Here is the input.
Amino acid sequence: MTPCLRNKTTGELLPTVFSIAKTEELVELQNNGWNFDWHSVGLNPSYNIYKLIVQGDTIIQGLIATEVKKNAVYVALAESAPQNLGDDKGYEGVGGHLFAIAIKLAVALGFNGYIYLDAKSEELVEHYQKTLGADRIYSRIHEYRLEVSEESACKVLEAYTLEGGLNVE
Here is the structure.
């Protein structure tokens, strides 16, 4: 875990900021190497899509789509920018920061940081268990469903520092 984004080349720690992504920012992402069609995801009115940037910059380093449920925040989708993937990635720590945003939202809404998500693979289940302290929920709804409890959520928020606005009413 890295408290700020770490430049993989220089080791420099850089503060991060998050905010709601604007629709026009999502339009061309898939054409620029992103895996998911964030523009289509952004058309779903039940999702809030947050972008993560390095403070003082405008380049999106990662995106997370959240949906407020009855007593939790559901993480519908999270993705690091293409430049932050693989051995030659620019920044480390993007994924953890994205989940910290969802946890902050769950705290702000009075859910004590409780979030849940559906991982894409067994490998990701293990990754989220290790990095977020996620617990597996055995469910017929999704074979890779996970939750991050209040205790684990607190640890994530202690580990990652980021500033931004949730736009929660």
Observations:
- The chain has one domain: 5-164.
